[in-house]
Amino acid sequence: MALRKDRCMGRLAILLLFSDDSTEHLAKLEQSNWKGCTGKVGSMDSQKIVAAIETAAKKNGIIQPNVYRESHALYHAIIEALHGVTRGQVQLGSVLRTVGLSFAVLRGNPYDNEQEGDWIAVSLYGTIGAPVKGSEHETIGLGINHI
Predict the structure, then answer these.
(1) Second label for 45, Cα 20 to 30 Å away, from 86, 93, 113, 145?
(2) Distance CA 112, CA 16 (A)
């Protein structure tokens, strides 16, 4: 059940996030049975970040909106990625922090055995800091969950 470099979904989600041409990169991933999307979100409210990523995943057919376990898996991957962005405390506006993030969502089976089923990864990259221009620094987060 070894992971291969070309199927390490966290790595693939981060590469998708940082790709200069996400459309081309997604087309290559889809040839290998991966589904994905990218987007941007900025807010002082973590609920808005979760909502933006969930909306993008549903709109792009990465998760089925009427299947609870898929939304639930995505939610946990988002929260795990936000823990990385916020250094363990998913608090933004309540402690006067704001973020400007790019995100990538990737779904597929990273294992050789198809019975392992699909997993979902969320990668986040951008800035975090006080809501004052010039008071931010870079941040990154990754979350992976089984569906």
Answers:
(1) 145
(2) 21
pLDDT tens digits, one per residue of 119-140: 999 999 999 887 878 888 999 9
CB atoms within 10 A of CB 45: 13
What's the DSSP call for residue 44?
Answer: S
The dihedral through the CA atoms of 28, 122, 104, 118 has a sign that is: positive
Which of 82, 77, 69 is closest to 106 using CA atoms?
77
Q: How far is CA 76 from CA 39, 71, 95, in A?
A: 18, 9, 22
Tell whether pTM > 0.90.
yes
Q: Can you give the pLDDT at residue 140?
A: 96
Output the CA angle 117-119-124, nearest 5 degrees: 170
113: Cβ contacts below 8 Å, ≥ 6 apart: 1
Helices (H), 1-147: 9-18, 22-31, 46-59, 68-85
Distance separating alpha carbons of residues 51 and 75, to the nearest angstrom: 9
CATH number of 5-146: 3.40.1510.10
| Token reading at 135 | 């008071």
Three-point CA angle 26, 13, 39, nearest 5°: 65
